[in-house]
Design brief:
By secondary structure, the chain is mainly β. The chain contains no helices and eleven strands. Strands 2, 4, 5, 6, 9, 10 and 11 form a seven-stranded mixed sheet that branches. A four-stranded antiparallel sheet has the order 1-3-8-7, with no helix packed on it. The N and C termini lie far apart (40 Å).
Amino acid sequence: QVQLVESGGGLVQAGDSLRLSCAASGRTLRTYNMGWFRQAPGKEREFVAGIYRDGNSMDYGEAVKGRFTISRDNARNTVYLQMNSLKPEDTAVYYCAADMGIVLSPRVGEYEYWGQGTQVTVSS
């Protein structure tokens, strides 16, 4: 079992950048594909970005392509989400999640372990 803790959220203005971190404990992250998801009030949790266990393959949700970058440092047991050119519609609670599946998935139900989330608020 792995425990995940997100950090780095906050209140920023439109156009600013933030970097979220997800630190893992309990098991090495290299075992898992990792994903970032977000959930805004009244909306379903949506896929933001995912990265394969070896770091060589990534996937992004349409809303963030070209602005967000996912990366991982397996030696530090940490996954990152660099968010640039933030927009008010990026406001949400951001969660990282771990999946032991064979393929990198954008589906919420495929991920076995979740962090508690970190709030990102982008003002206009």
